[in-house]
Amino acid sequence: MKLLTHNMLTSNIIKGVKNGYPLKISASDVQLIDVDFNPEFITRMIPKINWKVLHEAAQSLGHANDLPAELNAEYEADQEFLKKTHHVLLEVEVQEGDLICPETERKFPISHGIPNMLLKEEEI
Amino acid sequence: MTKAERRAFKKQMRSQHTLLRHENIISLLHQHLLIANGGLGNSVSRDMLEKVFKPCGSILDIVMVPGKPYSFVTFSDLSEAQSAVQSLQGTELPSSAASSEVPPVKLYLSFVKSVPGAEVASNILPAGLTLIQDFVSQEEEIELLKCIDWDYMDPQLKEDSKISLKHRRVKHFGFEFLYSTNNVDPDHPLDMGIPPECSPILQRMLSQQIILNLPDQLTVNQYQPGQGIPPHVDTHSAFEEELVSLSLGSQVVMDFKAPGGCHYPVFLPQRSLVVMRGESRYQLTHAIAPRKSDVVPLACLTKDNQMKLTLMARMERTSFTFRKVRNPPVCECDFPEQCDYQKLKKSNRPLTKPISTSPKELETEHVHQVYEEIATHFSDTRHTPWPRVAQFLNGLDPGSVVVDVGCGNGKYLGINPQLVMFGCDRSSGLTAISHERGHQVWVSDVLATPLRDGSVDAAICIAVIHHLSTQERRFQALVEMKRILRVGGKALIYVWARDQKRGNVASNYLKESSDLPRDEEIKSAVDAKDLKAELPTELSVHVNRTEFQQQDLLVPWKLKGKEEKQVFHRYYHVFEESELEELCQRMQDVEVNDVYYDQGNWCVIFTRIH
């Protein structure tokens, strides 16, 4: 699971959960993989993601490095910044661990890089 | 001539030509007049014409032709006919209740030599049908209509009945009629039996020997003017032979049609009881056309024996249909062509009891587990993206966030590298295949997609919703897709169509395309035997690469193992034309942009608009 995916996911499908966002990450295996850098793609993606959530997730995994906590208004021209964003969004992969609902502490296991978001019948 | 007169003359000439074409009559000076624009075909009634023509003289006859926008009036002599033409040419009909919604009707008159013999729907009843006029009194009618509480929703009701049917309101007593299977579940009666107010009526039917068995199921339908019910034969195995139906609140014409095409429009007066047996019950379809009025022979209304027609406006009509549930569901009628039971028996398909498991259990066993088992083989056969799905994805703005709900092996996730695409699927086996191919995926259910409200620019859901086993669940899946779309976001849905040969072009499924495995052969008899013991449902097993015989079925998937061939059965609900569109239209804040048929699927594109 990349942090891009984490940025999208919520546990609001559980009965009674309002936002369920962002999910906490508890990781036992994180791997770094190489992905080709495409500045155009990253630039287009930035407005679509929740920056604060990305930054906190990267921090919790110890991979935020010097990624700024706030978005700079002129990030489009900032190649270094785009590279850092590219790295945390696409190159940090949680292989094993759990996603945790912020409201109920319900755990969703991540196994072989794939989060399992299935609910039991009584949770829906 | 003034402009209006010229126009009137032109219209007069045109109507004469129409007459010549339709009836082969040439007009000269005669006592008969053609009344163009004044016919049953454009909602003009006999009463209205009588009022208009009476002042001109004594009318011998008015002949109205079904479905035609003209009629004929015959005066006792030529001079009266002439004076009618002079004084009434181009006259406007006074707007009455029936015509208030349309612009005023102008009548154009011309002389005709003779009047065509009126082709009359003489109220001949099809074999097996009995009609009893005034079966209930006005007081009983009021009492019966009062005893239906339309606002109360029985919590036991499973599915379709909770959503109001598009064409009418429906309530069930005794047993719920399930529209998804056109059947009842005889093992699960509703707590709410037939209302006690019906008892005296039912006792009367028994004592007069109109029926022989006391019904235990009641369906109440309420039709507004303009609403109808499509042609159908009540499922043979679901109900005993006798069907009785009371018409309350309004008269209506019910259309019975024989398989050979013979058509019997039957006039059901208000407070009458219609009894269907034999041919009319088992072989003929019955339907109510969605109209606001019916053409009715006058003889049905008066003792007058003359076969004249008139137009009757429909009012709100409530029908009480009483039936007895057949248990066990075994029908031995003389109409095997129309008999679900005998057809199934003949084709050696399993038929034991109706589905006793819950929808979830059915889907777990016949969808989720099957996909886990066949994931790899399934994935190997699913490599060619459908062009119109690819076209949808390629048409989205670069950078759009898109989710593929039920992504399978992820064959659409990499189609357009300009998109930020995610996939999810119920099957962890298939999800793993997508993940290996480098796609971002998770495991989730189509009814609970773990994304925030309004968080995606587009969503696709290809060949997924037909695996849900009730209409309510299929609807919920669509609502869930709408929920995650942003306002202005678009969704593309594909579901398998029942009709696999649209416009005489067989779909790839029937043609056996290269996208499907070669070893999936037609071996139905074997499949059916395999299943009989272990599947306690009334789902039939589909014969691969043939047309679908029913909407809910099990489709075999053959897997060649190392030692033996295994057969898995996937549950499908195949969609009728416009069924998917209608489900989409039921959602609030949704605009349906496109509906099309592609590769044996019904497809809809909708936009979330609020």
UniProtKB/TrEMBL annotation, chain A:
<comment type="similarity">
    <text>Belongs to the TRM112 family.</text>
</comment>
<keyword id="KW-0539">Nucleus</keyword>
<dbReference type="InterPro" id="IPR039127">
    <property type="entry name" value="Trm112"/>
</dbReference>
<dbReference type="GO" id="GO:0070476">
    <property type="term" value="P:rRNA (guanine-N7)-methylation"/>
</dbReference>
<dbReference type="GO" id="GO:0046982">
    <property type="term" value="F:protein heterodimerization activity"/>
</dbReference>
<dbReference type="GO" id="GO:0005654">
    <property type="term" value="C:nucleoplasm"/>
</dbReference>
<protein>
    <recommendedName>
        <fullName>Multifunctional methyltransferase subunit TRM112-like protein</fullName>
    </recommendedName>
</protein>
<dbReference type="InterPro" id="IPR005651">
    <property type="entry name" value="Trm112-like"/>
</dbReference>
<dbReference type="GO" id="GO:0048471">
    <property type="term" value="C:perinuclear region of cytoplasm"/>
</dbReference>
<dbReference type="GO" id="GO:0030488">
    <property type="term" value="P:tRNA methylation"/>
</dbReference>
<keyword id="KW-0963">Cytoplasm</keyword>
<dbReference type="Pfam" id="PF03966">
    <property type="entry name" value="Trm112p"/>
</dbReference>
UniProtKB/TrEMBL annotation, chain B:
<protein>
    <recommendedName>
        <fullName>tRNA (carboxymethyluridine(34)-5-O)-methyltransferase</fullName>
        <ecNumber>2.1.1.229</ecNumber>
    </recommendedName>
</protein>
<keyword id="KW-0511">Multifunctional enzyme</keyword>
<dbReference type="GO" id="GO:0008757">
    <property type="term" value="F:S-adenosylmethionine-dependent methyltransferase activity"/>
</dbReference>
<comment type="similarity">
    <text>Belongs to the alkB family.</text>
</comment>
<dbReference type="InterPro" id="IPR012677">
    <property type="entry name" value="Nucleotide-bd_a/b_plait_sf"/>
</dbReference>
<dbReference type="GO" id="GO:0002098">
    <property type="term" value="P:tRNA wobble uridine modification"/>
</dbReference>
<keyword id="KW-0862">Zinc</keyword>
<keyword id="KW-0489">Methyltransferase</keyword>
<dbReference type="GO" id="GO:0106335">
    <property type="term" value="F:tRNA (5-carboxymethyluridine(34)-5-O)-methyltransferase activity"/>
</dbReference>
<dbReference type="Pfam" id="PF00076">
    <property type="entry name" value="RRM_1"/>
</dbReference>
<dbReference type="Pfam" id="PF13532">
    <property type="entry name" value="2OG-FeII_Oxy_2"/>
</dbReference>
<dbReference type="InterPro" id="IPR005123">
    <property type="entry name" value="Oxoglu/Fe-dep_dioxygenase_dom"/>
</dbReference>
<dbReference type="InterPro" id="IPR013216">
    <property type="entry name" value="Methyltransf_11"/>
</dbReference>
<feature type="domain" description="RRM">
    <location>
        <begin position="33"/>
        <end position="114"/>
    </location>
</feature>
<dbReference type="InterPro" id="IPR029063">
    <property type="entry name" value="SAM-dependent_MTases_sf"/>
</dbReference>
<dbReference type="InterPro" id="IPR035979">
    <property type="entry name" value="RBD_domain_sf"/>
</dbReference>
<dbReference type="InterPro" id="IPR027450">
    <property type="entry name" value="AlkB-like"/>
</dbReference>
<dbReference type="GO" id="GO:0046872">
    <property type="term" value="F:metal ion binding"/>
</dbReference>
<comment type="function">
    <text>Catalyzes the methylation of 5-carboxymethyl uridine to 5-methylcarboxymethyl uridine at the wobble position of the anticodon loop in tRNA via its methyltransferase domain. Catalyzes the last step in the formation of 5-methylcarboxymethyl uridine at the wobble position of the anticodon loop in target tRNA. Has a preference for tRNA(Arg) and tRNA(Glu), and does not bind tRNA(Lys).</text>
</comment>
<dbReference type="GO" id="GO:0000049">
    <property type="term" value="F:tRNA binding"/>
</dbReference>
<dbReference type="GO" id="GO:0030488">
    <property type="term" value="P:tRNA methylation"/>
</dbReference>
<dbReference type="InterPro" id="IPR000504">
    <property type="entry name" value="RRM_dom"/>
</dbReference>
